[in-house]
Every structure is written in C-alpha cells, then in structure tokens.
Amino acid sequence: MAVRQCGYTPGMEHFTIATVAEQSPDFRRVLWTGKHTQLVIMTIPPGGEIGEEVHEVDQILTFVSGVGQAVVSGQTRKVAAGDLVVVPAGRKHNFTNEGPNPLVLYTVYGPPEHADQAIHQTKDEADRLEEQGKDEPPQN
C-alpha cells in the first residue's frame, strides 16, 4: 500500500488520510514520525478493542468509518465517522468496535509513541512487540 499520495514534495508529506486509513488492513501502521508528533492509522476489527491503556503523551484520534465506544477517564461516549476524541497524557482510555464493520481511525501522538514505520498486523502482535521493548519511539 502506498502511503504517500499525490502532492508529495521533498520536505512535505501529504496523505489523503481517510482513504489511506480505510485501505489499511493492519491493526496499527505508523505513517509518519516527526520530532514532536507521530501519525498512525488503526483498524479495529468487529468486537475488537485498542485495549485499556495510559500514555505519557497526548493523543488525538479521528474516526474515519465504523462505530465504536470511547472510554476516557471513566467517561463513555459513542464514536463514529467524523468524530474526534482528545486523550490528554496520563488518562486511562480504551476504544472498542461496537459495529459489524472495522472501526477505522487515524491518531496523532505528541510526542511519538511508537517505533518509526512500525506495522502491527494484529493487536496480539502489537502487544507482544510492546512487551518485548521492540515498539519504542525514536529518541530525539
């Protein structure tokens, strides 16, 4: 899957983000890593979840397709295409797919949270690599 869309020029990354996100079959794919932020797309299968977690970084999630549930700091909301959820650093959160189709989203971490160019086909793979210390963000 080509992640750089037309319009790419040196020094600038351009993505048709909804299209790129919907075409990715992977649970998590890092598209771009900068010094202060990181762009990641995720596909959560029906009945799946990101998994309850707490990051030391801020996270902004934008939903492209599907329906789900967001739980942040004990508050619950339904999410669907076009919704955006902000998860400040240090807040416990989880996102679950509540529909019959994949829940597709893109997320921006600030600073980066995952290894540059990481691709995790499944949640199990993502969890295993994190536990093994093989999904660490670049050190600036």
What is the typical, i.e. mean, pLDDT? 91
Given helix and strand content, the structural type is mainly beta
**Could you tell me how far the N terminus lies from the C terminus, measured between alpha carbons in angstroms?**
28 Å
As a percent range, the share of strand residues is 35-45%
Question: In terms of per-residue confidence, which ranges show pLDDT below 50 for 5 or more consecutive residues?
Answer: 1-9
Tally of individual helices: 2
What is the element string, with H for helices and E for strands? HEEEEEEEEEH
Give the biggest sheet: 6 strands, antiparallel
The strand count comes to: 9
Shape: globular
Backbone CA Rg: 14 Å
Strand order of the largest sheet: 6-3-8-2-1-9
Pfam family, one: Cupin_2
Organism: Actinoplanes palleronii
Protein name: Cupin type-2 domain-containing protein
Region (Disordered): 114-140
